[in-house]
Each structure stands twice: as C-alpha cells, then as structure tokens.
Design goal:
By secondary structure, the protein is an alpha/beta fold. It is built from eleven helices and 13 strands. The strands form two sheets. Strands 9-10-11-8-7-6-5-4-3-12-13 form an eleven-stranded mixed beta sheet. Strands 1-2 form a two-stranded antiparallel ribbon. A hairpin with a 5-residue loop joins strand 1 and strand 2. The structure holds S-adenosylmethionine and iron/sulfur cluster.
Length: 328
C-alpha cells in the first residue's frame, strides 16, 4: 500500500496518454495548440503498460486514462485493453471530450470500463464553438447518447467561466432531471498553456449560490471518500450535481491521487512543477524493483496541498502549463 508522509493512502493513478487534442478549449490551450511532446519523448505503449503494472503492484487499484484527448493517441483502445488486464486493477475509467469516443463504446464496455467523464461546457452549439474553437457539438452529444445507451456511469465536466457559459449552468443542472448523469461544475484553473491569467469569479461558493437560487430545493449529499467534488442533489432528479473547487483547493487533505504525464513525469500533485521522469528511468535500464523504490520515495515527498506544491515550484515563466500536458 502506497502512503505519503501525511498518512494519505495513494491508490489512484491518472495516466495522460497524449498531450495532443482535437479541440482547443480556451481554458486549456491556445488556438495554435502547444509545443507538442516530441515522438521520442512520448512514452511507448510498452512503457506506459510497464509503469501501470509497477503501480498496480504497489497497490494502485484505480487508473483513469486522460490526456490531451486519449483517442488522438494512435491505437489508444489497444493500450486501454492491455491496461484493463492488469492484476489488482479494480477501477478503470476515462476522461474524454467525446469526439472520437463513440466508436469505441462497445470495446470500452467489454474491457470493464464502467465510468466515463465527458467534458461538455455548454449545451449551445454556438457557445461550444466559441469555447472549443471547433464545430463538433453534435459529435459530443451523440457520444453522450451512446454512453447512456451502453449504461456507462457518466459524469459531465463543465468548467465555469464568466462571460462564456454561465447561462448553461441551469440547463446543465436540468439535464440531471431526466438523465442518470452527474454534472460537475469545475472552478477554472490557471492551466491554459498561455500567458493569460485568470481572475476566478466563479468559485465554489459563487457557483453553489447561483445553482441554489435557481433550484432552491437543492440538498447536500454525502461526498465519497477522496472525492474532489462537493455533491448535491435536486430532490426527484435522477443525477447528482457536483462542484469541484479545483482552484481554491479545499480537498487536498484527503488526496489519493498521482499523475503520469505523456512523457513519463510522475506528478504527485496537480500544482507541482514536475517530478521524476519514469520513462527516462526505464530507458536507463532500471528494474521494476528500482522503479518501485523511486516511486515510493517520490510519493513520500508529496506536498501537503496544492498551495504548498505551487510555492515549491514557482517559475519565472509567464506561460502557464496546459492541463493537456499535465493530464487533467
Ligand atoms: N481531453 C479530455 C477532456 O477534455 O475531457 C481529457 C483531458 S482534459 C485536460 C481533462 C479535464 O480537464 C477536462 O474535463 C477539462 O475540462 C479539464 N480542464 C482543462 N483545463 C482546465 C482548466 N484550466 N481549469 C479547469 N479544468 C480544466
Ligand atoms: Fe482538449 Fe480536453 Fe484540453 Fe479541451 S480540455 S483542449 S478537450 S485536452
């Protein structure tokens, strides 16, 4: 069992399989994209699988495939299949923008993926284009239909942004009335791959207040252990509503997660600048046992919270990292 020095049990790995993406969400990356990771710096399938296997040996039982957009990685579905077979893994999930995902739903089901997080910031086609800079709204809605048809547990991720999608909050909460989907409103974080600073108007209390004004019967419900979202329900509605205080970082005390970037960097905190590169360790010939020791050592140094992590890694650069390279 992996534990950090604060006694937090680490059992959840978020694996970003690629940094590239077929959308250009304004809060995640600039219009021209990022300086993409070079092919030889990207982990191969074998390296990703080996790292996952070392982690499951160490007690990680939950892996989420993320990115960039996972299915932009060549043969990502084959990698997911291989990961799904790892001994000790009890929960394999995926975060996706839904553009290419629809065609893989039967296979994902077959590989035991139960839960899929779908990013959807608006229910309006024009606003979708403004936010993502691509005309792909219909594809995402089709994927949402498919996910429900195949009985995946669906969570919709919505980043809340002033002047961009506030008018979508009520319709998105409304989705939970008839559909068994959870909608999670996320505070915008400064991971946009450019030099734009954000001023966070829509923080957790503000988002909650807005929802409560429109749905006065809203009730707090229990939050699962280590959840990053504060959970609510409108009585009689099928799905739940969540708010993720990603920027104000009030959930770190219970954090159970670590991240691996597409180039193999182990990040023990979302707000950390970056830690050891496990791909480089593999390529230098380290054994599994040596990799385990490196990982245990890094996890022991996991910062207390996102504030401490940020303080430790402040850089001179005015360019923020992109969530696509960190693995959101
Ligand atoms: N491309 C996939 C997608 O969009 O679902 C997976 C990767 S994306 C980086 C993962 C999650 O990070 C998405 O739900 C996205 O909304 C969220 N995200 C990206 N940039 C963010 C930011 N600056 N603040 C808050 N959430 C962000
Ligand atoms: Fe792509 Fe996801 Fe970033 Fe949007 S949030 S640009 S879909 S990686």
């Amino acid at each position: 069992m992996l534990k950090d020095k604060f006694g937090r049990h680490i059992n959840y790995l978020r694996l970003a399989v690629v940094d590239r993406c077929n959308l250009r969400c304004t809060y995640c990356m600039p219009e021209n994209g990022l300086t993409w990771i070079k092919q030889h710096e990207l982990m191969t399938d074998e390296e990703m699988l080996r790292i996952c296997s070392v982690f499951t040996d160490l007690g990680i039982d939950k892996i989420r495939i993320t990115g960039g957009e996972p299915f932009v990685r060549k043969n990502c579905i084959d990698l997911i299949e291989k990961i799904s077979k790892l001994e000790g893994l009890t929960d394999l999930s995926l975060t996706t923008n839904g553009l290419l995902t629809g065609q893989y739903l039967p296979q994902l089901k077959e590989f035991g993926v139960k839960s899929v997080n779908l990013s959807l910031d608006t229910l309006n086609e024009d606003r979708f284009f403004t936010i993502t800079r691509r005309k792909s709204f219909d594809k995402v809605m089709k994927t949402l239909d498919g996910l429900l048809k195949y009985h995946f547990k669906v969570k919709i991720n919505t980043v809340v942004m002033e002047n961009q999608n506030i008018e979508d909050i009520v319709p998105l909460v409304g989705l939970t009335k008839e559909l068994p989907v959870d909608v999670r409103f996320i505070e915008e974080m400064p991971f946009n791959g450019n030099d734009t600073n954000i001023s966070l108007k829509w923080n957790y209390p503000q988002i909650y207040k807005y929802i409560q004004e429109h749905f006065p019967t809203i009730e707090k419900i229990a939050d699962p252990k280590s959840s990053t979202a504060y959970h609510y329900k409108i009585p009689g509605f099928k799905g739940d509503v969540g708010i993720i205080a990603a920027y104000t970082r009030s959930f770190c005390g219970d954090c159970n997660r670590i991240r691996i970037t597409p180039s193999g960097i182990l990040r023990t905190c979302l707000y950390e600048g970056g830690g050891i590169n496990l791909k480089d360790e593999i390529r230098s010939g380290k054994t599994d046992q040596e990799l385990k020791e490196i990982i245990i050592n890094s996890i022991d140094k996991k910062p207390k919270d996102g504030w401490e992590a940020e303080k430790l890694t402040l850089t001179d650069s005015s360019i923020h990292q992109s969530m696509a390279t960190i693995g959101g």
